[in-house]
Structure of GPI inositol-deacylase:
Amino acid sequence: MRRRSTGSAAEEEGDDSAAPPLPSPSHADLISPSEEAGGSSKVDHSNSARDSRNPRSTARQFITQNVHELDRRKSIDHRPSAAKNRRPSNTDWKPAELRNGQLGQDRSAGTALLSASPGGPIAAGRMSDARQNARRSKLRSPWSCSLVTLTTTAFGLLALASIIHSFSSRQLDTKGCRMSYMRPSFAKLAGFDTEHTRFASKYSVYLYREGMVDEDTKVKGVPVLFIPGNAGSYKQVRPIAAEGANYFHDVLRHDSAAIDAGARNLDFFTVDFNEDITAFHGRTLLDQAEYLNEAIAYILSLYHDPRRSERDANLPDPTSVIILGHSMGGIVARAMLVMPNYQANSINTIITMSAPHARPPVSFDAEIVRTYKQINDHWRQAYSQKWANNNPLWHVTLISIAGGGLDTVVPSDYASLESLVPDTHGFTVFTTSVPNVWTSMDHQAILWCDQFRKVVIRSLYDAIDVNRPAQTKPRAERMRIFKKWYLTGMENVAEKTLAQKEPTTLLTLEDNSNSIITKETRLTLRKFGQSHRPRAHLLPIPPQGTPGGKRFTLLTDQNLDNPGESGKLEVLFCSVFPLHPGQSATLFSMNMDLSGDSSGSTRLACKNAASDVIALPASTRATKKPFYLDEEQEVLPFSYLQYDLEDISDHQFVAVVDKAVDPTPGWVVAEFSDNVNSHRIRSLGLRRLLAFGMKMKLPPNRPMVAEVKIPALHSSLMAYTLEMGNQVCGDDAELFTPLVRQYISDPYESKYFVNVKRANINLHGVSPFMPPPLKQKTGQEGLSLQFWTDPTCNSSIKISLKVDIPGSMGKLYMRYRTVFAAFPLLVVALVLRKQFRVYDGTGIFMSFMESLDMCLRQSLPLVLAALTCLSVSFAQTNSAASSGFWGWRGNATETQIDFTKNDLLTGSQDPFFWFMVPLIGLVCVGVVVMVNYATLAITNIFSILYGWISVKPAWLRNEDKRRATSPAFAPSTPRRRILTTTILLFLVSTVIPYQFAYLVACLVQIATCSRALRFAREARSNANYNFYNYAHSVFILMLWILPINLPILVVWVHNLAVHWLTPFSSHHNVLSIMPFIVLVETLTSGKMVPRVTSRLRHVTSFLFFFIAVYSAVYGVSYAYMLHYIVNLIAAWLVAVHLSTSSWSLAGLSTILEPDSGENSRKLGKTP
């Protein structure tokens, strides 16, 4: 059993007083009476609020109480130093300068010690109240937590738990992807070696071939290059490439019209980046872009080589490559056009999936932020040019496809191109909008989702044309093709093809036919083929200029026939055509004669409307989702037509032709409706909707399609609940159940809800930190709700919309999860600021939790209130600038847009979200407290381990015990510390990034904290607890900077793992890490930071306040700067430490001598 060393009662009972220093060397363990008296107690929470807020007055009270004790101990300690030096003690950890024999320094200068203060016998006048000692111990304990701190932490953690629970369980999109299958094989392009690129030993390119379909490795079609994303694999191209090979092999190669139009097989190339991490490192992103430009040059050269190509010799050689980019691969694709080695016009079509175009996912690396700015500025400047000749990107089309709510890796808001590309050259669309897809997708599923990959491949085959050197159709035609495949067809930019068509069908009807529907009458067919012969139903088209504005809508559960097809239903737009006999065969490709045996007939020249059909998910009593899964029966979509009156004003009739000859199931509803009755705008505000909700009723005589627009609902931070009443149809069976489409215009996001009774409404509209759009919005934008209801049901339908507050909390997670890299520093910096202010005034370095309690009562609420006012002022300034400044400048304002105006604070442009700053502050307080306690737990574990290691048998002599102590946590000599620091800094400047040195510094600091805690427990004095609290707080500060540095370190380690030993071209600035290393090495010697009583103490306060404000205002968008600012604070603390040291060349030479430390320790011994 370990024998406890005999010491003073003050040491054994936890007294905080200590004896004053004497000029004897043996008194190196003592501290000055001014420091010890000032630090004899911590602020007592049980005192009045005034005393709690004034540590100086509290300290003076304790000084008064302990004066007699100090006087008594002065008289006791006046005895020979040798006798006191022979007294056993728990520890003999002395400062380095005393061990080196520098005994003449002024102890009142503030050099801290870690020591057990020797004391004398127990005095009769010593305070013996156990409760008083327990209260002092509680106040000094770093685990203590006041009621205010506990309550704030509980509310903060409750808010965080509510956000996470809402994110994982409320307002969730349904997974609807069907599985895809393939037979992959890859052929490596071995010829693309170091002669072509300097990255040949790190990266490689493969050609994909589908097994049993196309196993020849010669190129023969149109080149397509797939770029994987962050840590992505080249094998991720398999689902899309397999679909491309199978679709051409099974369908297109047998279609002579498609072959004549320029369709050929797609040659998919894919890049193996060795799963490089591009999201965290800008240099890696640029390296990939440089490599890919060289890869494109090599790929295009393959088509010139007859040994590698099987293309038709009559076709022009390809000059460009189609790009498919996933995640960060989409950003690399855009970066390729900025690089110096980019070959002009070698890229003209880019399709990206889940790519964060608008802003970097994280801002931990300065180079990734600069790279993003360089890329985005280049694209914006190119598209701001007035003339096409000055725009290097004039022929480039960029389509950004976002996965939606299921993508929890990259916020889908970041996929927006509003701030980068005009709608003439690109757009952003969500997979929930894509026809026949209609489902959200996670970050990886967007690559293998079966129904989505089919749309991507068909759009590419429509866009290519091997008869042109660019291998693609002209830009305007490509844009029409992509809008047709990816948009719903109901957007304002959707183009109708009816006006560009020529009449192809001659429809002949008998005279005096009763098939003409009277005006204002709806056409409803509940079954096809009841006449046992084809029959045409004609709806007269109202004349243009009709009051209220007319719109034609048609909905059916059948597919609409193209010309020449023999289905059940065909829709034609016709004009009376007085045709002479014998001309029908030459003018029209189709002749539909429905006149029967009638002698008189009416001839109509008609255009087929099948090319403008809009697919809608089927909504019946049996359907629950807009899509069907693998194990479910296929559900055919509804066919919908929608034309404004000006689109069809050149025609007189709409002919709905029932071509069935036998009664078959099916239905169709067609009508002309007034826009006044079918379109409504509800101008209620978000606050009113939050308080009362929105209620409306669809009347019994409603049109088939009704639309409600709510301009105030545009934020992606809010979620809503839509409820619809039952659709009662009476005697007639309902044709279909209510179908709802929610949509916004920028970006193009639509969601469908079938068989609706209750629906969760959430959107990706105006989002935090997003740059403003290139084109200022002029009209009323916001959420729109489109309702398809059975108009034959003569009953009203009630609709209500409410704000889902619990569901809205989950929307904060994806938009604000990066605040935890910056905002907690606001709390930590204010806590350290309070600690240093109290320490400089009283000599007490409070514990982290005690300082946090004082901040929660004083500075933190004031700072959060000021930041809240600042956030509201930013939002009001932005709204005023948008309404006043943009109105009269026209197109010239495009160059004046500040794309960084939403980078500040919480990034919100809406004053409604003023509560975000205090909410984030509350959550961060809870997180900081939990991280602090976790750090305390780890430190205590290490401290206990250190105690076990240092325990020695009781029979060892006390002189041998110190010699036998394990050096696991023993402080090293100054010579060794200087040597270690020099070597580490040299490695930083040459080989390793400074982030690695920072991780080493954090590990050393936690060892220092563990050692300090052990000494503070064994030798209970204010000096030891002061040093422990100081070391612990510095470690907490460093810990919150560690996440900013870890991603770069991961990139470096990954490069070593793939044997890429080329040093980083960045992150070797020695000054970025030197202050941290010197500070940590200084703390390993046990030196307490000196008190600063002059005006320079305000510098410390200002620096901590500056980092607190910066972390809140700029921390999310420029997180990498936090390392440099904290580095500046570390440099200041090093300067404060050095302010009490007397450096000289002689002293330095003494330190560097090999045996100087040992000799000085021998000189310090007293026999």
In short: The first strand starts at residue 184 and ends at 188.
